[in-house]
Every structure is written in structure tokens, then in C-alpha cells.
């Protein structure tokens, strides 16, 4: 029988069974909470400062208190106690508590990065500016569509998936929707930066489903899974039929940043 994982709760290392949050917390009663998910490599989170900055901005607007902690020390302690140097970290800020956990990377990550994913499209809305723990609508949408879903607006513009920002390469330029229509993703900003270093234009124009026949490549990005090519959309293969060279180049570069290289 495996021992329970260790978590870090408001400054204390506890087992999952020992961890408790106040039952009167508005996180439990109203769903008021924020979170950040990030890649952990070698017991460290190379992009943690970027995630903390976004969390602090959202916390101020939500009226939640994020106290100062030595997050690197907390994360290293979690990695050591759970004997897991690499994985997915999650920092959850609730009403009256802050929780840091460390778990494995998604089991299908390598396959998705190599072969690509299939997305279904659905007209749906979300609170895009903040990474909220109140994901009921998104979880329900994924359950209905049986997987990660690409959110589109009434005009057929591709915005973001239920888990990642969306990019399409058309006429030699990357197209991607911009905040506040979509979450200001940490990985999204890095993809735009990496594209600029390669002389690849990035347009804030959302990709249009009516033009999908002209998409040369398409992919999604987030700070845990990195870049995953999109191979099929609504059951049909995209024109390229598989991951392209631009996607592969950005994928390799982003993976290096996520690993702290």
C-alpha cells in the first residue's frame, strides 16, 4: 500500500489525510478561489515567478490574501517528501488558506506532444481574465464533449480551449486570440516571445473556423503540457495532416523553458 502524498498547507507539510481547510471558507461555500498549475523540473518551477505575479494580480481583484512564503523552499520540500523531482505543481489560493501540491505529469503528455490532439468546437463563454477554481462550466463542457474543447465565439472565431490557449499558422503568421477574450496564459506569452525571436509574426487576430482550410498548422499551449499539435478538429484532419515544422520548433524551445534550460 502506497503512503499518502504530502501537501503544503499554509506553511505546514501534511499528508493529504491530515490537511484541513475551514468549513466556513468562501472557497467551499461560494467557489471563491484561484489557482496556478506549472511544470516542476528537478524540484524547481522555472516559471514560478510569472505564475505568482498573475496570481497576485487576480488575488487583489478577488479580495483574497496571498501571504509571503518561501515558495522555492516549500516546493523543494514537497519534491523531497514525495520523492518526485519532476511533475505538475499546483498552487491554490482560497479564502483563509493556501495549498501547494505536487503530482505527476499527465500520462498521455508525451503521446499528445508527438502525435497531436483532436478538439471539438463549441460556442461557450468563460471568465477569461482569472484562473479560477470555479471551473464547473468548463468541466461540464468537457464532460459533454468527452474531452478538451475549443471555445469559439458566435462569429466562429477560435478563442481558447478548456485548458489551453490556441494558435493557428496562416499565411506564414501565427494567429491567436488576445486577453481579455482569453486567459493571459503564461505559456501563451512565452510562445509569442519565442516566435518573435524566430522572426515569426504573431497576429492578435483570432483564428477563424471559416478559414481552417488555410491553416498551415495549429497547436495549443499551456504551462504544464507545453505545446501540443492539433491534428483533428471536429472529427476532420487539418490540412497538414500532422504536426508541422513551426510547431515542432516552438515546442522544443518551450519545453526547454519549462525545464529551466
Give an overview of the whole structure.
The chain has 261 residues and is α+β, with helices and mostly antiparallel strands. It has two domains: 6-103, 2-Layer Sandwich (D-amino Acid Aminotransferase, Chain A, domain 1), CATH 3.30.470.10; 109-258, D-amino Acid Aminotransferase, Chain A, domain 2 (Alpha-Beta Barrel). Helix content is 28%, strand content 29%. It contains seven helices and 14 strands. It has helices spanning 26-29, 48-62, 71-82, 109-115, 136-145, 186-197, 245-258, and strands at residues 6-9, 12-15, 33-40, 87-94, 97-103, 117-123, 149-152, 158-161, 165-170, 173-175, 202-203, 215-222, 226-233, 236-237. The strands form two sheets. Strands 6, 7, 8, 9, 10, 11, 12, 13 and 14 form a nine-stranded mixed sheet that branches. Strands 2-1-5-4-3 form a five-stranded antiparallel sheet, with helices on one face. β4 and β5 form a beta hairpin. The longest helix is centred in the N-terminal third of the chain and has 15 residues, at 48-62. The radius of gyration is 19 Å and the shape is globular.
